[in-house]
Structures are given as structure tokens and as C-alpha cells.
């Protein structure tokens, strides 16, 4: 691999300017030799993900996303590694994603575009003695549908495949939906009439189409029909408006869920005769409901789906059947209208419908489940005290035991008693590791994708610390030292505030808020997992609801004081606070109620007016949970911690960043805050991206974002210039 080069200096990109605009660098540049880690290193790293073990446990398939900076995009390729040898991973397919092994162990299925439409493909890697990774057969196209494939899952015997397509659920065929899309594009009238929410979600305007679940048989030539069989049949009554529902068409919900759902939301029974999936029926309550249910449907589509978890009005999801087919395991929350409640692991007797929670004493909230071949153990990852490890959960006792501890596990696969997993931490982007599926086993790193790239990019050391936070309870945080740290010196500080708010600063690598990008600029970093953070028990997580400006602010104050007292290299007189989403809300909040420590503030996509936020956002269940009901029924709750009401006390210079495609926290929130700063005469800048959502994802935009933020921090935390010997006041 080539050694990554990065710029220590930059030039401004040539661009037209309007009144009040300032150009910001987006060039990449290059230098050789050791240098502090920076955003140009960050955007060019290889991103390893989606590990998949072959059925015999010998081969790893996975994806690597590289950056085409000139094209301003990422390109994903599929690699395969022989785990029994010492050879390097081999790229088997370019511009493709979601590799999945067939049960025969030599066919690899995946998704890639054909004529601009995402299709299902497969490649035969079989050879005389194991797989032939060097000279395998050419890939073959499996599907030829008129719509993009969202995701897929193979049946246990490989004879069938589940497929998800976004369709007009009134249409009897995929072709019908495609024709409707073409007709809409040709229509010279551009208006859309909506009769219910969602009107828009995350970063997309509603089209009336839904993700639906289909099944298709794979024939002897490796092909599937152009029109697969619909499994997610609905029985919604017809209604007026552009999004018409008809009896017997698709279910009124998304499988997988939008915007981030994947194939873990549906699965086969071991014999392949039954399919399980999770879905929320939309109706008129979708924006304020988290009532997902798990359904069962015959794999041949001969009957409509059957709701297995209708009794629970909260979130049920991620179904996995036991190897004997008698028990269905799934995750369930207990509180309706909540997205951050603890997921308990449920077991359902499929013959009787009786359910019980197998892990009621485990105070963590796991992700999707993987079951061992003997059916005795479930595997899942979960936030845990600043880490995100893999746990083995004993089905009979509910006892959860760490299999892999330090760092953040972003994906894993199980085969032949071994686990292949992707792991990252605060100093390392993701790579793949192998470990035996037993407690305290030694993990072996099997890929080293960014070793050369990071060889000359110097990073800051870090450590966790604890302190007594709100009510004397233990709270965790971490500190990152600046690159080039020297004992006895002091350094300016970037005080990072996480979003969620039910999230956490974990020991993990990030491509958006990476502490090493600040350490590389000469800043120390302080980050606090305040009350409301995940991984410290459900009561700790729940404690933020209804108290956004209370306990978390107390923790931030106490954490800041504890860090200053413990780490003498932190220069508390040269510190800036930065946050996004809820962290952005908190940045606006402290601008009015705790602004004395800060030289500057950076707010990314934050909530400025909690009252307007209720009517501007899309997922209303979140607002109603966090504020104890609707705004019109409980206006006092929305005003209790409203940053807008404290603008008169703002005084600290602020950079506001807000993107136009952010529908979670719409851009008017950021514009309102910038207006407040400008009207009050406080130094302020506003950076906006017309093509980004709640995150900044495009490579050039990421560079521009970091350059603007770093310049803002450097401007306001620069040490005072020394007085000239002859100037007034010099001594």
C-alpha cells in the first residue's frame, strides 16, 4: 500500500464570493515525513467493515471503502482473506457492497450497480484446493429488476433469497413502481400533496413508497425472476391522497426500517420455510410511534404475515430463530414511544406464543443477535463503560460474558467456534481480528489496512478518568493529549460534548468527531459521558429525559473542574466547547448559562429553540419522550431549558454549522442562533452545506468543515502576543 501523504499547509480554493462570505480551504495537498494527524489523513483512510466468515471458518469476506478525493466520493470494494495462511487480502470485486457467503462456501453474493440500478450478483471463487482468489470466474448478475435492491439475505440452503425494494405498495409489480417513478419525473407539475406525516425523514422527502420484503428462488443458472414474490402483504383500507393503500398490496411500513435499517431486521427459520421480520405499521401515528412488531410469514407467500408481538406496544425487533426452529429470539423494549429504552432479549415458544425475557438482570442494551450452532449461546455487542465489546449470553441463565473487551466492535460473524470482528479504538481505525468464541481468548489481528497510512501521522495518547458528578454519582470521561506533548507545558483545550443525547464517547474511531484531529492541531481534548450516556446502566441513560439542561450540565461542569485539577497540562484559560446535535443544543445552552470558561464555541446542527423544534422535526416520539408529552399540552416543559430564552446572556464568539438537508434538526435552528449572535454584535460565523444532512459526509465537505472549525479554535485560543519592551504597560 502507498504511504498516505497529507498537507501541513494549504491554499484557499478558488471560488466565487458573495458579500460576507469567506473562502475555506478544500485542497488536499501533500507533504512527506512525520506530521501531526489531520483531516487530510482522516478522509483518505481505508474504511474496513462488514466482516463475513465462510461456512468452514477459513475465509473472511469484507468491504473496504477508499476515497476518490477528486470525484468527492467513497468507493467500496469487496476483499477476501485466507485466514489459514499469511497472505494478503485479495480484492475480488470493485464498486460493490454487502458480501454474503452461500452455504456451499465458494459462491459469494453481493450488491453492485448494473446500468445504474443496484442488483444482486455472485462470484464463484471455487478452486481445486480451497478458493481460487487470484483467478476466479467472472461475476454473474443474479437479478435484473427495474428498481434498486436495498438489501438481501440468503436462505439457509442457498436456494432462495429475501430481497427488499422500495415500492408503491398499491402496485402489483416492481415494473409498475418503476413506471410510476418515470411518469412522475416526466410530469411538468412539481407539487406534491401530503395528507399525513412523515412529509420528510432524516434527509429525504416522502415519496409514498415503502421498503417491502420479497422472496425469489435462485434457479440452476444462478438467476432469479424479474418479479419476485411479495411477502410483506398488507390489508390496509384504501384512502384518498397520493399515497393510496389497497387491500392485499404491500404492508404500510418499511422493511427494513428507514433510514438506517438493514437485513438484521428479517431472517429465515432454519428449514427455510418461514420468514420473520420487524416492521412498524405507519398509519397516521408513524412520527410519534416506536411500536415495531415482529411478524411471521410463510416463505412461499401463501398467507399474509402474522403479528407475533402485538401485545407489546413498544419496540420489538431483530428476530433470530433457534437451530431447532422451536424458539424465536428477538429484542424488545418495554416503554412505548421511546427509542432509548433498554432492549431485553426475549424468547418466544413458537408453538404456544409464550414469551419470557432471558436477561432481565443484565443492565445493558444489546444490538442484533447471532446464535451459536448448538442454540445455547447468543452473541451481541453493547455499549459498556466507554467500550463497545462483544458479549456471549447464556440462553438458559441470561448470564452475559465479555468475549472481546477493549475498543469498539462495529461488526462480527460467527463460524466454527470462531468470531471474526471489526474493531477500532481512539487511536486506530477499523481492522479485522479473529478470536475463539470463549471468554478471555486472545484476539489475533488479521488485517492491517492503514498501517502505512498512519506510519507518519502522529497521534495523541489518551486515558479514561472518573469523577463525582451529579448527586455524587460516578461519571466517566477521557482526556487526549496533543501531538508533541511535552511535560511541564500547557495546551489549549477542545471540550467535546456528545450527541444523542442517549449516546456516549466510546473508545472508538470516528470519521466525523475524531479527537485526534484536534490533538493534531495542538489541542488537548476533554470529553465527558454525562448523565444520559449509554453503557452505564438504563437508569443512568434515562436520567436525562426531561432534564436536558440539568444533570448533564452539572456533569459537564464537574467534569471540567475534575479534568483541570487532574491534568495540569490543560490550559483552562484557552478552551473552546464544541458539540453536535444534542451536543449542539448543550452548546447553545451553555452559551447563556455557563459561558465563563470558554474563549469560543462551535455548534453543529444543534437545537436552538426547543419550542419550535417540536414542530420542525420529523420523529416526534423523541421530542415527546424527552419533554414529557406534546408541546401544546406541556409548553412549560419545552421552555424549562430553552436556549433561546437566554440569548440576552450570550457573549462568547460562536461558529454555527448547519446543513440544508438536515431534517432531524432543520437548518432554521442554526440560522436562528446565528441571527441572535449577529444581532447582539457577538463575533460569529455561519457555515452551511446545501448537500449534507445531520452529518457532513462528502470528503471535500469534511475537509472544509475541519478547516473552518480548526481555524475558529486557533483564532480564539491563541496565546496573547508578548508586549513590546517599549510599549505602555510593559515591565
The biggest beta sheet is recorded as: 8 strands, mixed
Q: What is the 3D shape?
A: globular
CATH fold name of the largest domain, please? Rossmann fold
For the largest beta sheet, what order do the strands appear in spatially?
A: 35-36-38-37-39-40-41-42
Question: What Rg, in angstroms, do the CA atoms define?
Answer: 26 Å
Q: What is the residue-mean pLDDT, rounded to a whole number?
A: 92
Structural class: alpha+beta
The fraction of residues assigned to DSSP E strands is 25-35%
Overview in brief:
With 731 residues, this protein is α+β, with helices and mostly antiparallel strands. A hairpin with a 5-residue loop joins strand 12 (149-154) and strand 13.
Description:
- The structure is a single chain.
- The chain has four domains: 46-141; 143-186 and 196-293, no CATH class; 308-414, 6 Propeller (Neuraminidase); 459-717, Alpha/Beta hydrolase fold, catalytic domain (Rossmann fold, 3-Layer(aba) Sandwich), CATH 3.40.50.1820.
- Helices cover 15% and strands 31% of the residues.
- Strand 7 and strand 8 form a beta hairpin.
- The longest helix is centred in the C-terminal third of the chain and has 19 residues, at 699-717.
- It is globular, with a radius of gyration of 26 Å.
Q: How would the blueprint of this fold be written?
A:
Elements: E1 35-36, H1 39-44, E2 47-53, E3 59-68, E4 73-82, E5 90-93, E6 97-101, E7 107-114, E8 117-124, E9 126-127, E10 130-131, E11 140-141, E12 149-154, E13 160-167, H2 174-186, E14 200-201, E15 204-205, E16 210-217, E17 229-230, E18 266-268, E19 274-280, E20 292-298, E21 306-307, E22 316-321, E23 327-332, E24 344-349, E25 355-357, E26 370-371, E27 377-381, E28 390-394, E29 400-404, E30 408-415, E31 418-425, E32 428-436, E33 444-445, H3 451-454, E34 457-458, E35 462-468, E36 474-480, E37 491-497, H4 515-519, E38 524-529, H5 538-542, H6 551-566, E39 570-580, H7 582-593, E40 600-604, H8 610-616, H9 620-626, H10 635-639, E41 654-657, H11 667-680, E42 684-687, H12 699-717
Amino acid at each position: 500500500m502507498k504511504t498516505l501523504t497529507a498537507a501541513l499547509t494549504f491554499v484557499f480554493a478558488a471560488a466565487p464570493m458573495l458579500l460576507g462570505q469567506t473562502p475555506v480551504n478544500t485542497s488536499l495537498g501533500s507533504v512527506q515525513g512525520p506530521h501531526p494527524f489531520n483531516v487530510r489523513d482522516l478522509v483518505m483512510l481505508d474504511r474496513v467493515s462488514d466482516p463475513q466468515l465462510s461456512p468452514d471458518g477459513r475465509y473472511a469476506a469484507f468491504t473496504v471503502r477508499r476515497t476518490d478525493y477528486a470525484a468527492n466520493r467513497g468507493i467500496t470494494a469487496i476483499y477476501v482473506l485466507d485466514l489459514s495462511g499469511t497472505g494478503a487480502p485479495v480484492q475480488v470485486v470493485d464498486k460493490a457492497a454487502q458480501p454474503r457467503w452461500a452455504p456451499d462456501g465458494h459462491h459469494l453474493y453481493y450488491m453492485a450497480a448494473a446500468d445504474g440500478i443496484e442488483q444482486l450478483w455472485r462470484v464463484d471463487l471455487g478452486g481445486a484446493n480451497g478458493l481460487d482468489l487470484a483467478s476466479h470466474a467472472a461475476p454473474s448478475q443474479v437479478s435484473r429488476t427495474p428498481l434498486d435492491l436495498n438489501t438481501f439475505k440468503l436462505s439457509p440452503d442457498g436456494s432462495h433469497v429475501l430481497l427488499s425494494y422500495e415500492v408503491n405498495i398499491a402496485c402489483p409489480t416492481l415494473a409498475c413502481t418503476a413506471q410510476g417513478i418515470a411518469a412522475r419525473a416526466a410530469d411538468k407539475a412539481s407539487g406534491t400533496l401530503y395528507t399525513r406525516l412523515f412529509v420528510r425523514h432524516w434527509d429525504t422527502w416522502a415519496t409514498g413508497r415503502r421498503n417491502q420484503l420479497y422472496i425469489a428462488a435462485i434457479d440452476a443458472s444462478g438467476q432469479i425472476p424479474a418479479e419476485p414474490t411479495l411477502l410483506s402483504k398488507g390489508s390496509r383500507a384504501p384512502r384518498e391522497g397520493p399515497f393510496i393503500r389497497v387491500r392485499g398490496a404491500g404492508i404500510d411500513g418499511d422493511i427494513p426500517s428507514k433510514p438506517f435499517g438493514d437485513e438484521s431486521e428479517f431472517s429465515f427459520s432454519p428449514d427455510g420455510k418461514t420468514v420473520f421480520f420487524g416492521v412498524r405499521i405507519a398509519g397516521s401515528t408513524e412520527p410519534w410511534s416506536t411500536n415495531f412488531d415482529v411478524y411471521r410469514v410463510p416463505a412461499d407467500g401463501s398467507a399474509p404475515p402474522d403479528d407475533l408481538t402485538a401485545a407489546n406496544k413498544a419496540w420489538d425487533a431483530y428476530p433470530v430463530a433457534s437451530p431447532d426452529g422451536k424458539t424465536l429470539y428477538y429484542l424488545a423494549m418495554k416503554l412505548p414511544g421511546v427509542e432509548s429504552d433498554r432492549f431485553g432479549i426475549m424468547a418466544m415458544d413458537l408453538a404456544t406464543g409464550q414469551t419470557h425475557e432471558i436477561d432481565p438482570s443484565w443492565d445493558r442494551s444489546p444490538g442484533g443477535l447471532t446464535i451459536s450452532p448448538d442454540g445455547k449461546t447468543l452473541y451481541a455487542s453493547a455499549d459498556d463503560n466507554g467500550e463497545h465489546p462483544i458479549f456471549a449470553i447464556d440462553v438458559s441463565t441470561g448470564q452475559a460474558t465479555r468475549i472481546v473487551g477493549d475498543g469498539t466492535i462495529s461488526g462480527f460473524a460467527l463460524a466454527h467456534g470462531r468470531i471474526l470482528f471489526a474493531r477500532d479504538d481512539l487511536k486506530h481505525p477499523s481492522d479485522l481480528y479473529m478470536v475463539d468464541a470463549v471468554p478471555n481468548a486472545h484476539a489475533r489481528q488479521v488485517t492491517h489496512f492503514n498501517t502505512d497510512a498512519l506510519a507518519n501521522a502522529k497521534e495523541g495518547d489518551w486515558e479514561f478518568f472518573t469523577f463525582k458528578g451529579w448527586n455524587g454519582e460516578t461519571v466517566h470521561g477521557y482526556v487526549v493529549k496533543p501531538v508533541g506533548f511535552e511535560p511541564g507545558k500547557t495546551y489549549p483545550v477542545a471540550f467535546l460534548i456528545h450527541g444523542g443525547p442517549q449516546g456516549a464517547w466510546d473508545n472508538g474511531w470516528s470519521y466525523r468527531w475524531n479527537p485526534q484531529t484536534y490533538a493534531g492541531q495542538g489541542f488537548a481534548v476533554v470529553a465527558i459521558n454525562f448523565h444520559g450516556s449509554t453503557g452505564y446502566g438504563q437508569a443512568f441513560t434515562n436520567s436525562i429525559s426531561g432534564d436536558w439542561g440539568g444533570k448533564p450540565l452539572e456533569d459537564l461542569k464537574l467534569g471540567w473542574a475534575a479534568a483541570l485539577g487532574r491534568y495540569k497540562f490543560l490550559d483552562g484559560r484557552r478552551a473552546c466547547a464544541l458539540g453536535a446535535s444534542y451536543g449542539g443544543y448543550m452548546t447553545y445552552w451553555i452559551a447563556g448559562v455557563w459561558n465563563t470558561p470558554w474563549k469560543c464555541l462551535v455548534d453543529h446542527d444543534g437545537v436552538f429553540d426547543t419550542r419550535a423544534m417540536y414542530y420542525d422535526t420529523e420523529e416526534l416520539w423523541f421530542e415527546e419522550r424527552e419533554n414529557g408529552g406534546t408541546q401544546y399540552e406541556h409548553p412549560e416543559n419545552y421552555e424549562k431549558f430553552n436556549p433561546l430564552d437566554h440569548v440576552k446572556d450570550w457573549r462568547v464568539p460562536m461558529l454555527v454549522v448547519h446543513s440544508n438537508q438536515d431534517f432531524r434538526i432543520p437548518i432554521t435552528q442554526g440560522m436562528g442562533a446565528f441571527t441572535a449572535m449577529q444581532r447582539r454584535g457577538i463575533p460569529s460565523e455561519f457555515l452551511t452545506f446545501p448537500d449534507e444532512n445531520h452529518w457532513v459526509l462528502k470528503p471535500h465537505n469534511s475537509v472544509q468543515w475541519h478547516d473552518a472549525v480548526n481555524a475558529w479554535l486557533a483564532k480564539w485560543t491563541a496565546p496573547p502576543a508578548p508586549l513590546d519592551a517599549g510599549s505602555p504597560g510593559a515591565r
